[in-house]
Amino acid sequence: MPHLEKEYKNLLTREQYDALKEEFKSIFTKEITQTNQYYDCHQQLENNRSALRIRLIEGQSTGEITLKIPQSDCEVIEITEELPAEQLQWWIEEDIFLLPTSIKLALEEQGIHLSNISPTATLTTHRLEGKLNPGCLLVLDESHYSGQTDYEIEMEVEDLEKGREIFLEILNRHGIEPLKPISKIRRALRASEKN
Length: 195
Fold this sequence. Notes:
alpha+beta; 8-stranded antiparallel beta barrel; 8 strands
């Protein structure tokens, strides 16, 4: 089922991440560690600014295959299929990828036909999340890939305009320069290409 995600993101220094973690510790209700394995076929997805991943969350019996298709700077359509984590783990280990029908159809609508899907990058994120208000989810991420670590604040919102005000106010209060980061997959890809 396609889902339109509206979000704001900003990279952080370790110090900024620690300050935000402290300030919002009372609202964080969820703490997870998740690993994303990204896939592509001859850079077709990368060239389309899209992403395809398998996500496994530590301690959970199901995982996800997700296709992300950007609609604007702050909006992304996500098509996600849940599958048993054991099955997805086996796919990763055996280098198998079977596209769910919903994702295959969405790709074909974009004019993308993937044949030899292969892994491109792996990224593990330690995530804290909690609601600032009913229409606003605050997320802090610490991500590890190819020997690198980075920090990011994310805010998923229902209303882009109201969300932007809240997001900029948080950044401003902490002296954080608003800079939309390149996506996690692009950061992970660049790092793996350097290695």
